[in-house]
């Protein structure tokens, strides 16, 4: 959108809501990688976003990867297919066990037909300064909580994982030019399909959840509410992190 201002977004269309989420997700990824020491902290510089100091990697390839990953998430968000976006930190090989998940739940975002993403909402948008204030508070708490978590082993890696909405209308992005791959089974939950679980032997009450979902400890970060923008953020620490 030509009139979209990331520092003072006017959330008058679904496209503006998704753009605001993409801007925030980009900054959040850099923040998590810095606070969890996935890359040397000396490789980050201090920048400003949402009128507050933030950390940004100086490595061109990492910045390019994050930019491409967020663009791919934004494309799926505009299709209203995603329920959550997670930054998953893995232990070093050979186990590569998921140790931490930073979860951004977009399940409460509105579902809008693709032809209506630029259509103005009927309700009056919230003040433009409202959402950046919440972004600042969330990034501050994310930094505080991340730096207070127990230290990770050296040479950890990270991935970005998305989860589809469980409404029967969301389909995997097969044939996409973006290199999407299926997450490992432990990071997946069994999805419903027209009222039934994919596995016909399992009733609805026994929906399976991947062993790495939920974690051994969950810490809420913040709920963000501003007009049609509704985001919940939390941190999950996996069982493997506490195993000796």
Give the key terms.
single chain; 244 residues; alpha+beta; 5-stranded antiparallel β-sheet; two-stranded antiparallel ribbon; 3 helices
Describe this structure in words.
With 244 residues, the chain is of the alpha+beta class. The protein is 24% helix and 25% strand. A 5-stranded antiparallel β-sheet has the order 5-3-4-9-8, covered by helices on one side. Strands 1-2 form a two-stranded antiparallel sheet. The N and C termini lie far apart (51 Å).
Which range best describes the helical content: under 10%, 10-25%, 25-40%, 40-55%, 55-70% or over 70%? Answer: 10-25%
Q: Largest sheet, described in full?
A: 5 strands, antiparallel
| Cα Rg | 18 Å
Q: Could you give the order of strands across the largest sheet?
A: 5-3-4-9-8
Q: Structural class given helices, strands, pairing? A: alpha+beta
Give the distance, in angstroms, between the N- and C-terminal Cα atoms.
51 Å
Q: H/E element string?
A: HEEHEEHEEEEE
Shape: globular
Number of strands: 9
- The helix count comes to 3
Quaternary state of this entry equals single chain
Averaged pLDDT: 85
Portion in beta strands: 15-25%
